[in-house]
């Protein structure tokens, strides 16, 4: 049986199960919503395929043989399992349990962590995954439930987008750097200073575009493709460098030498896929993230 039964035979099996359950061709046809001739054809084909009789036919209907009784038992168990599966699938989106994936740039961890703590206190059955990566995760493929993105407003047609806040950026330095090179008096007093920055002067970040217009290329003495490496270089005293305020103000030894400027700001966005946006898990995550953003917004 197992070697011969393939997926395309499920209609025949389901039909035979209903005949065994109802006891008549007409009863099975009514349950399945098909013509009685279809029921007879399915049963005959399945018996031929199996090489055994599933029913004894008589004027009052169809009585399962021993093989038919086995089919009835397995069919009932299978139907029950499918019903349970359907109920679990229907209820999965309503339950506050299971995995919830949130992704953002690494620099936004200071915003995300308090929200995650709040979420886990309220819903301890949740399992949270937080993925920090510069790449854009594809929500339509289930790579994440909630994405926090910075920069231009995301435009994917199947995503729901709302602004979470503003990513404010300031210019920081280590005390060792300031001892050697002095402290700038402001944004217009950067001549002669050394800078830490991205690996490309084509960076789209507004603060790096601003800096490119203020200092010559040779002033950029340390370049790295990741913000974590840039932060390490700033802390090591290699130069002045930009950090998100959420990140920079959490490092006590760094000095904020130029406060955030409006032209350095960039918005960040909450992004969810339209199919999951209104599920309780996603809504709870959005609420927690918005609350955290309000509490942590440092202002200018």
Automatic annotation (TrEMBL):
One of its GO terms (biological process) is DNA-templated transcription. GO terms for molecular function: DNA-binding transcription factor activity; sequence-specific DNA binding. It holds the Pfam family HTH_1. SUPFAM superfamilies: Periplasmic binding protein-like II (SSF53850), Winged helix' DNA-binding domain (SSF46785). Keywords: DNA-binding, Transcription, Transcription regulation. It comes from the Bacteria. Residues 8-65 form the HTH lysR-type domain. Belongs to the LysR transcriptional regulatory family. This is LysR family transcriptional regulator. The lineage of its organism: Bacteria, Pseudomonadati, Pseudomonadota, Alphaproteobacteria, Rhodobacterales.
């Amino acid at each position: 049986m197992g070697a011969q039964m393939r997926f395309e035979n499920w209609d025949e099996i389901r039909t035979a199960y209903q005949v065994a359950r109802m006891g008549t061709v007409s009863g099975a046809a009514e349950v399945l919503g098909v013509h009685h001739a279809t029921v007879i054809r399915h049963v005959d084909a399945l018996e031929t395929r199996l090489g055994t009789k599933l029913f004894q036919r008589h004027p009052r209907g169809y009585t399962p043989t021993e093989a038919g009784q086995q089919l009835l038992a397995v069919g009932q168990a299978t139907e029950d399992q499918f019903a349970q599966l359907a109920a679990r699938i229907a209820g999965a989106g309503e339950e506050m349990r299971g995995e919830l994936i949130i992704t953002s740039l690494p620099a936004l961890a200071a915003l995300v962590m308090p929200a995650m703590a709040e979420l886990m206190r309220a819903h301890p059955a949740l399992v949270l995954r937080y993925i920090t990566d510069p790449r854009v995760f594809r929500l339509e493929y289930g790579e994440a439930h909630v994405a926090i993105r910075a920069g231009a407003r995301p435009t994917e047609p199947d995503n729901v987008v709302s602004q979470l806040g503003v990513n404010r950026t300031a210019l920081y330095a280590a005390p060792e750097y300031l001892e050697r090179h002095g402290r700038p008096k402001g944004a217009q007093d950067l001549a002669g200073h050394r800078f830490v920055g991205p690996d490309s002067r084509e960076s789209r970040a507004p603060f790096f575009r601003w800096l490119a217009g203020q200092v010559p290329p040779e002033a950029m003495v340390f370049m790295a493709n990741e913000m974590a490496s840039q932060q390490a270089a700033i802390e090591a005293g290699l130069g002045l460098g930009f950090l998100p305020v959420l990140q920079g103000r959490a490092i006590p030894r760094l000095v904020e030498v130029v406060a955030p400027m409006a032209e350095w700001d960039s918005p960040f966005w909450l992004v969810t896929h339209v199919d999951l946006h209104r599920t309780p898990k996603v809504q709870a995550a959005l609420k927690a993230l918005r609350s955290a953003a309000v509490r942590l917004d440092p202002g200018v």
